[in-house]
Amino acid sequence: MSVARILEDARELHGDVVQLRHDLHRHPELGLDLPRTQEKVLEAISDLPLEITLGKGLTSVGAVLRGTAGDPSAVDRPTVLLRADMDALPLQEETGVDFASTVPNRMHACGHDLHTSMLVGAARLLAERRHQLAGDVVLMFQPAEEQLAGAPMMIEEGILELSGRQADAAYGLHVFSAGGNTGRFETKAGVMMSAADALFVKVIGRGGHGSAPHQAKDPVPVMAEMIVGLQHMVTRQFNAHDPVVVSVGMVKAGEAINVIPDTAEFGASLRMYSDEARTKMQSAIPRLLKGIASAHGLEVDINYHVGGRVTITDAAHTAFAAEQIHELFGAERHHSLPAPLGGSEDFADVLARVPGSFICLDATPLGVGPDAAFNHSPRATFDDSVLVDGTALYTQLAVARLAQLAAA
Question: Residue 142 belongs to what domain range?
């Protein structure tokens, strides 16, 4: 089965994939409820020989392509899962592209419109090769990745067993709008992305007049001490070789400069790269914050929300993915990441149950260079040229992995 032919067919499909990507980009949707996006995906794959399953608690699309090579009745036929996320972000787009979002405060700023379009393209290429597949391909079109909620829900609804048996391998892909190496793929075996938790804190004091703080219980300086204390905690209680990151992104207190408020609040994003560090955070943070509050005679309400898990790729599957990149595009188009990425992914929930890998694709707009805005920026743009690359790689991963599994 020629990798050159896969790449050639992906190039021929490029116009259709670009058109779908631009349509999705103009009409971004958020979270679990993506009715128009779901409709567009279903429309794009409606003529393919797929078994379609729609989500119950979310607007997901699951599709099974049955290969017809070998013995179609065999119960142990292998299955490969390919995943694309579909949701956008609550941002007002500022790119100025001619296919910019038409929905106020909604934008595909993380490239999920590219992922969805590339997987649709791969579905078409794989359907054309159905007679060569001695196994099945599950296509996972997922909402709510930005909330780290969609993958767990699709798993609960049976996406991993959609072909009739648990998937043998799973692969995901993600584009990035900055990096300066357009078209380069990046992989990492083992820990690849962080876990992500959230912290919400309310410091409870007693308000009063700004001229007489001794007659009040001012929560504002106590909150400030807590914020600084969290940074000290990170450097003094956690191993630098198993890092954690605490980023306070929300602070609220009072309405007037001469009024001490009753309460002060802050929120933080917490990132870790091991289950051990996460467990320690869950005990260290309340101990620290309660201690600071008690020292000042105040109370504190702490809400710690556990989010997405650490993304851990399988070493053998990551090496396999790198081999397919080399086969399709040449070794110069592949780079091994020296360290994990700081972001988080709910595809981690899939990889915790099915061996596989997650691949990054640099989609920096050509000619922009080091000034390109990064994902989640209202000015983030992605180069359409990589749609060919992603479509071809999704296809090749499924074709080559099924061939290996069938031969084993």
Answer: 3-193+311-407
